[in-house]
Amino acid sequence: MSKSLSGEAQRVFDDGVVAYRRGDMTRAVALLTQASSLAPDSAEVHFRLGMALFNSGQVKQAFAAFQRAYTLDPELTDAQQNAAAALQQLGRTGEARKIFQQILMRQPRNEMAWVGLADGYRAEGNQSEVAAALTKALEINPANAATRHMLNAATGQSPAQAERGYVADLFDLYAPFFDTHLVEKLHYVAPREVIQLLTSLYPAERFGAALDLGCGTGLLGVQLSETYRLSPLIGIDLSANMVKAADKRGVYTQTRRADILDYLHAPGPTFDLITATDVFIYVGDLTRVLSACATRLSLEGVVAFTVEQIDGNGFSLRPNGRYGHGRAYVEGAAAAAGFRIARMHEAPLRKHAAAPEMGLYFVLEKNAA
After folding, report:
1. Which residue stretches of the chain are H helix?
2. If we measure between CA atoms, which residue out of 337, 340, 347, 312 comes closest to residue 326?
């Protein structure tokens, strides 16, 4: 809460912050815009307005709000950093770099300024500078899983999977804005494509028990429950905030916060269908996870999933921090885990930098013993 506000401005500001925390960006923007009119000299109000605008996709307006905030309060470094992040989103990486460098002149151990500098270099494709900036950030905070992950990506290292802490923290922060950003801004179509593939192969009564790995907010769960007569439909996710959001949809019989390998390896029921959309972008080695899926499937069980496509064989942690997989590699991993390919489909997953992000959609059937 802002101590500098009073009366109507404070009430409207507080309501705007509550709306923001709930992920209602439309209401948050409206209320915080009103608060900024009632308290035009409050740096905190403009900063909070910038956050709401940024997370609603209004990046140009967010930059103006952040700029106003740190003009009012030059000590508000977070506003200056976010202004630079907004400039990067607008493609103005050179201007953003100057701001981060200004911050680092004053605060050479500002971890997030080094991370922001790395983001700008990544947008320009300068991986050596990305690595140098992230190395500085990691020296300041060696425990930051996100920095370690992105440094691996910048230096061409591809561990078997992303660190759990990185994935959990990423999606805990992303959860309030996940649906708006992914569906409305990035035009995420993977759940629809998976359902279309499944219905082209199997009738409504084909599946009983189903498990949705990395269920997120339940975007696929909604469509699964509308299409198939599933009982139970269980959703698991590493992010506590994603699990809470999925619970609110009311489509899952049960949800759990768990790592997918831990859950699959633990004793438990078998399933007729296991799904994983936009989950294996944080897993490199698919042999382990597909083998674990096989142990939890019924005799004629099916697993349906997506991967981001790369040329060649193998898997690779790419500069954007997501794993890509070659078609031949996935086919080999499926065979090694005891599956046959019922259908493979190449299609967009979502948009990336205004262009389609191509993916591979797989439907696998468990081989009879």
Report:
1. 7-21, 25-38, 43-55, 59-72, 77-89, 93-106, 111-123, 127-140, 145-154, 164-174, 178-179, 190-201, 219-227, 240-249, 260-265, 286-295, 327-336
2. 312
Collapsed DSSP state (helix, strand, coil) of residue 255:
strand
Give the chain's domains with CATH numbers: 7-157 (1.25.40.10), 172-366 (3.40.50.150)
pLDDT for residue 231 is more than 80:
yes
Are the CB atoms for 32 and 15 separated by under 8 Å? no
Angle between helices 93-106 and 77-89 (to 10 degrees): 160
Mean pLDDT taken over the chain: 93
Q: How far is residue 61's CA from residue 130's CA, in Å, rounded to a whole number?
A: 28
Residue 300 C-beta-side C-alpha neighbours within 13 Å: 4
Distance CA 317, CA 88 (A): 23
CB 190 within 8 A of CB 309: no
Query: pLDDT, tens digit, for every residue of 30-82?
Result: 999 999 999 999 999 999 999 999 988 899 999 999 999 999 999 999 999 99
Query: What would the pLDDT profile of 234-276 be if each residue is shown by its tens digit?
Result: 999 999 999 999 999 999 999 999 999 999 999 999 999 999 9
Question: Each residue of 339-369: pLDDT tens digit?
Answer: 999 999 999 998 776 678 889 999 999 986 5
Under 8 Å between Cβ of 166 and 283: no
Instruction: Report the predicted TM-score, pTM, of the whole model to 2 decimal places.
Output: 0.87
